Amino acid sequence: MAYWRGFKQYAVDLGLKVRGNLGISASQRLDVVALAAHYKVPVLSFDQIGCPLEALHHFTVSRWGKVSGYLLPVDGQLAIIYNPMHPKQRIRATISHEIAHLILNHEFRVLATGDDGCIFGDKDQEDEAGWLGAELLLPRDAAKRAVIDGISLGRLSEQFDVSVELARWRTNICGARKILQRARRY
Ligand SMILES: [Zn+2]
Fold it and tell me: Which Gene3D superfamilies does the UniProt entry name for this protein (predicted)?
């Protein structure tokens, strides 16, 4: 993973600032559609853009895991097109990820998100969007709080409307477990 020096703290601060602009604190669920609307990006599902049936079947059934969504121009403006067959929490992560690219002023290309991030994306930019996208959904401070308060992953994932996997990842990397272990030792 190649993040520029200081990127993670930058993402923490930026995530909280964006949440502040949306009128929510670090402990509240993020409305990803409101997030996209804040950046004037419409959010549509594949079936809402008149996607040919054959293509829709390809993306949503045959290779349903491959494509989560796209960030692409529709009628002259950027829009996020997501795969409606995916679980809701994965769709939320896709939208947050795509908006993170915009917030970070990443070079615009048509971005298609798949199992390993955006298919046409630059590796470093993918890592950054992945990090900020997750920071927006479940802020580091909230993950820390949850670990310290002994909140279960299930409850945390429900509170923030994210997958248990994302909640686990965020709590593992937030640094709180180390603090707790150190505290127990002394
Ligand atoms: Zn991406």
Answer: 1.10.10.2910
The answer to whether residue 169 sits within a structural domain is no
Rounded (10°) angle between helices 164-173 and 153-160: 110
| Tens of pLDDT, residues 30-64 | 999 999 999 999 999 887 877 666 776 676 666 65
Q: Which domain holds residue 68?
A: 7-137
Contact 109, 125 (CB under 8 A): no
Please check whether residue 143 lies inside any domain of the structure.
no
State the CB neighbour count (10 A cutoff) for residue 133.
Answer: 27
Question: Which CATH number do you get for residue 106?
Answer: 1.10.10
Q: How far is the CA of 113 from the centre of ligand 1 (A)?
A: 6
Distance 54 CA to ligand 1 centre (A): 25
Domain count, the chain: 1
- Tell me the CA–centroid distance for residue 182 and ligand 1, in Å: 36
pTM of the shown model: 0.87
